[in-house]
Amino acid sequence: MALWAAPDAPAVLGDGARREALRAMLLAWADDELILGHRHSEWTGVAPDIESDVALSSIAQDELGHARLLYEQAAAEGQSPDRLAFGRRPEAFRNATLVERENGDWASTIVRIWLYDHADAARLAVLADSPLGSFAALARTLGREEKYHRLFADAWLERLARAGDDSRGRVQAALDALWREALAVFEPSPGEEALLAAGALVAGAAEQAVRWASAVVPRLEALGLRVPPERDVPVGGGRSGRHTPALAALLDEMTSVSRSDPEARW
Amino acid sequence: MTARAKPSPAPPVDTGAVLRALAEVEDPELPIAITEMGLVHAVSVRGGAVRVELLPTFSGCPALEVIRDRVRRRVAALPGIQTVDVAFVFEPAWTVGRITEAGRARLREHGVSVPRAGLAEPATCPHCGSTNTVLENPFGPTLCRAIYYCRDCRNPVERFKPSSDEPLAQGR
What CA–CA distance (Å, rounded) separates A252 from B109? Predict the structure, then answer.
């Protein structure tokens, strides 16, 4: 049963094609939040300190709640959030491959959440500025809440980058490994050009990527970190369903309870 | 021939009756009514059809479904109700300013500090009243609470942390 008020049907969405394009975009974002939320939850109980343990568990809860909300607001008739989260094969997911990667070490976890949450802020800001009624309100809500994710990630990135050679080396290695996949968070979803042409969005994924890079690159450089070569070439595929084996393994674990009794009511 | 007395119809429900019923619905995470927390945004009544719009503290709060179900059950128990529609809305944003005075007192007794005006003001210790407090963790036992430490009475302090553009007080 729906938790949120039914979304607006703003005139600018007009025909079915634009509604479908918005739906595709929001479902991809929801998949990002669900999968990364699950990865964060893997730190529960084993993070390096109790504060980070509580923080990542809370951030995981936020991301799962946001996934649920986005699934509900974007779903077609008859698609439930649970079905979307637990009832799809890996190739039906549209999350960026960045978020499905195994957590790796703490530096890699921090670099990923930092890159991702700043990317999420860049795309939410565009939706928040749109003439899309309740969808813009939704983006403002998520943006306010996720500010706390960025505070956590900013503080840890700085701490690790300034903590000596081993620590800085691990951060740099994570950045080298993840940067181009982070850039692919901005692979556009199908139909984006129709939303832009109608004025439903003021900036597409390509422009969002530029805004993101201009926010994050100077901060990395100020910390003495180096943005990898080929910094403008994304390594993607997730938005068209091409994933790494890590996603299938994650889904296998995440859906094990729901698969044990698909008809169960919670 | 005498007309048979018709059973008197239930008095029509009005907004006030719905709000009084909502004042009996407790928040699942705190000993306070949802009306005292300021979670109720709007109530409308048309005949036997009631719609209640609620505000979340955080949209990912796992208590939202429990709150929705409690509201639906409580309102449906009023006489003359045919349908109850309960939904959360995104705006206006919930702020600590929505908590009533009675609610603040109750939360203080429970050990939760509530900022008066904004998040940037120093956290007040609900145990001893000191503002000699320091932020320990922006994340706490629930999404809507941060953890401070009181340097005077040396107790941990939970403090409300609405989603906001304001910075959190760091303390000394």
Answer: 46
